[in-house]
Amino acid sequence: MLLMLLVVLVLNGHAADDEIALDGENTSPDGIRSIVTSVKSLEELNNLNLHRQAFEMAGHLVENHEGEEQFDFQFGLAAVETQHFDQALFAFERLVLNDGEQPRYRLELARTHFYLHNLERSEIEFNRVLDQNPPKPVQDNVYKFLLRISDLKNSVEPQFSVTIDLASGFDTNINSATDETFLPKEELVFINDVRLNNDARETESGYWGTLFNLYYLRPITKQSAIDTKVLASNKANFELDDYDLTTALTEAGYNYYLKSFHMRGAGKYQIVGVEGDRFLDTATASFQLNYTARNEMKFGVNAHLALTVYEDNNDGDLEQQKVSFSVSSPIQKHSWALMAFIGNDEAADEVNDFNGKEYYGATLQSTNLWGNRISYYGVLSVVESEHDDINRALYTQLREDTVVVGVVGWRYSMNKHLGFRNDISFMDSDSTLEANTYQRSKIEFGMSYRF
Predict the structure, then answer these.
(1) DSSP states of 213-242 as a string?
(2) 3-class secondary-structure state, position 147
(3) Cα–Cα nearest to 105, from 96, 114, 115
(4) Of 369, 367, 373, 370, the residue nearest 414 (C-alpha)
(5) Burial class of 88 by CB neighbour count within 10 A (0 to 12, 13 to 18, 19+)
(6) DSSP H stretches of helix in 48-171
(7) What is the DSSP string of 317-372?
(8) Closest by alpha carbon to 48, among 88, 10, 83, 92?
(9) CB within 8 A of 95, min separation 6: which ones?
(10) CATH number, domain 159-450
(11) In a 3-state reduction of DSSP, which class is residue 111?
């Protein structure tokens, strides 16, 4: 009760001034004083250890006052104490960029990197604090952090999470089919154009989906750990159930950590069902090697070997190989990741060679944080593929595809457990075969809860 009374006194004592500051257009002396008063309110809340209330208040002020030294410092303190480390990082990075000689700013930046588990960056910043010869109590505190960093570099921490996701959306082409009425005879073995029935043409539908995801990592030694993942999902269409999908997946991996390197070997088994019936099974073995540079840039190489077995078509089995290379930026207000890949799907039986293919492509993702809780992102992916043989039972031409996918979306985090999202995607498939030339758009709204 006493804490609530203090909050009311602090906030109400400056309510009138805050309204002026939030206007964003007031540049009069009174308006300037209101900014100082708002920051003073944040400082008072932080001094009372009412960091959650301070963070909420800062969220209303950040759009107009982001970049102001006093505001950034109090906002950063409230964010780090409420475990909103990404927001704290941006605030303290701005402060250090503008006044790198202020030890307190660099100390808080180092501490934030530590909580984000950016150990290399944290160590660098803590050592820079020591180079500035701060008071002995500060030095003692820094040495404690450096000792903890040394221990963490040689240890693995357990992780556990369970996520439930609910989604609904609209898909303009749930069966990834052409919108043409006829397939041209020029690419077919038939002497006339072939009319497609409605089920074989582009079909639009609303849908709903659910997803359950469990992840657990257990340390074995200070440098190794095992992990497991269990995922189950279901997508049901409103228009028709011919393309309803059910997926179940389990994965187990072994991790080894050596300073800036992370190596992982894993096995995965996935079952896909269509319209309630088992459609295919895929078994995958993978190896990953990731390296984190001192500036927190991440580089990776992944190799995958898989076998896909079709339930009702033994001749359709595929042996699959894929190698990918990735690079991603450090965690920042604007972050990006780039991946390039090459792969091959080889038919297990010669009669199915027309389903085998070679492909290569690249994916670029950009993510931006906006304020305390909102992020938005964009993804662009391009894939080129060429099949191994002509499907001579139907076609006279070899299938070659160019697929371009664009996605934009946003995320809103209500808290560390509950989040909402909206995704909009567009796919364009340009093929040498009319049946595989199509466009597809999708909009989806979702909600997820993480335990």
Answers:
(1) EEEEEEEEETTEEEEEEEEEEEEEESS-ST
(2) helix
(3) 96
(4) 373
(5) buried
(6) 51-65, 69-81, 85-98, 103-115, 119-131, 136-153
(7) -EEEEEEEEEEEPPS-SEEEEEEEEEEEEEESSGGGGGG-EEEEEEEEEEEEEETT
(8) 10
(9) 69, 72, 73, 76, 102, 105, 108, 109
(10) 2.40.160.40
(11) helix
Chain Cα centroid distance, residue 256: 23
Q: What superfamily does domain 2-153 belong to in CATH?
A: Tetratricopeptide repeat domain (1.25.40.10)
Delimit the domains of the chain by residue range: 2-153, 159-450
Written as one letter, the residue type at 166 is L
Amino acid at 202: E
Q: Name all contacts of 326-330 with Cβ < 8 Å and 24+ positions apart.
A: 326/298, 326/299, 326/300, 326/301, 326/302, 327/297, 327/298, 327/299, 327/300, 328/297, 328/298, 329/297, 330/118, 330/121, 330/295, 330/296, 330/297
CA nearest 416: which of 4, 169, 79?
79
Q: Which residue has the higher pLDDT, 46 or 380?
A: 380
DSSP 314: G
Cβ within 8 Å of residue 353, ≥6 positions away: 347, 388, 389
**Dihedral angle computed from the Cα positions of residues 61, 67, 72 and 73, in that order, rounded to the nearest 10 degrees:** -150
Closest residue by Cα to residue 225 from 257, 272, 258: 257
What phi and psi values does residue 228 have, to the nearest 5 degrees?
Answer: -140, 150
> For residue 385, what are the CA distances in angstroms to 111, 322, 355, 436?
47, 13, 11, 12
Written as six digits, the tokens of 215 are 């992840």
Overall average pLDDT of the 124-153 stretch: 87
Amino acid at 417: H
pLDDT tens for 63-97 read: 778 888 888 888 988 998 898 888 888 888 888 88
Beta bridge partners of 362: 340, 382
> CB under 8 Å to 398, separation ≥6 — which residues?
386, 387, 389, 390, 432
CB-based contact 351:338 (threshold 8 Å)? no
Q: Flag whether pLDDT at 11 surpasses 50.
A: no
- Are 303 and 323 in contact by the 8 Å Cβ rule? The answer is yes
User: How far is 268 from 108, CA to CA, in rounded Å?
Assistant: 41
pTM for this prediction: 0.72
